[in-house]
Amino acid sequence: MRKIRVLVVDDSALVRRIISDALASAPEIEIAGTCANGRIALARIPQVNPDIVTLDIEMPVMNGLDTLKELRKTYLRLPVIMFSTLTERGASATLDALSLGANDYVTKPSNTGGATAALQKIRDELIPKIKAHCARADKAVATAVGHPPFRATSNLIESKRFQRHGTRVDLVAIGVSTGGPSALGRLVPQVPAHFPVPVVIVQHMPPIFTKFLADRLSSKAHIQVDEALNMQELQSGRAYIAPGDSHMVLVRDNGLVRVRTHKGPPENSCRPAVDVLFRSVADVYGDHALGVIMTGMGQDGLRGSQAIYDAGGQILAQDAATSVVWGMPGFVANAGLADKVLPLEMLAGEIVARVSRYRLPGRPGADRIPLEGR
Description:
By secondary structure, the chain is of the alpha/beta class. It is built from 12 helices and 14 strands. It has 2 domains: 4-144, Rossmann fold (3-Layer(aba) Sandwich); 158-356, Rossmann fold. It has a 7-stranded parallel beta sheet with strand order 8-9-7-6-12-13-14, with helices on both faces. It has a 5-stranded parallel beta sheet with strand order 2-1-3-4-5, sandwiched between helices. Strand 1, helix 1 and strand 2 (29-35) form a beta-alpha-beta unit. Helix 1 (13-24) crosses helix 5. The protein is elongated. The termini are far apart. Residues 141-164 and 364-374 have low confidence and may be disordered.
């Protein structure tokens, strides 16, 4: 079996060595080469023919963003994973890189307890992402030579479920991970102004990053998008993103709904976790909830979607063809929990249609969502 060839680009010899040592533990992966800056990397790519590139953001001679821009002019399908720092500058640059065509990112270890811990952190985060993105690239190549990839078909249980509950949607809850910033950047701006319900989002990201993501989405959207604050009251026509490294749940408070953030144990190796949010959504909103599972690695959101489904709520899932990784939505779809499985470009329209159903024209709903009778 052919190994996945990785080109490692970083100006730090120590980081290049740590990444190489981390990847050496995976028998399916081999190092195609290492480079100290982007200019060298661009010259080496046609020589070593890598399957994927790990690219540092801050480098002398040619930095990661400039390298990515040049790389994408020639190599449209070559997966690129950015290496970023847990700083405001690193977060902003990482989101810039994702908008320029980077496939994913990994944060550099900081205060992890030495070289061994740093090695393990990179191993745990980077190896699964390399495998996932190279698997998707192989699927794209198969399509190019005439072999169509698997495409999930729409789940045709919608009519029966609507007959079962026939209730209006009072909250939209979104769970997303790998590929999420770009996917949210396409979905959220399609949500109309004066949207009659709140939107809550878990995007797997570290601290600082979620604040920058919220600000960027808000700048492009018709609705306000914020990083959620503890005990903040939910309001219609606004979106709330769980802060990095904190779980987000919804709680009842004197007939209102508020956000609560906490540092409970990670679930599915994630904090924030979609399952944690979705369980609270099921408890608070019951059959008035709409859950949306989008692109992401792993199965976070599966148990939470089951909770919303069991409470009578609705579930939408992004399809395989438009997901960067069809892990999270794939588990939900294959479990039979999704009302519909849709491509990314159709999700916003379906969300708006479901929220509009059973809602009187000209009455968008109060800013405060009461809980009486639920």
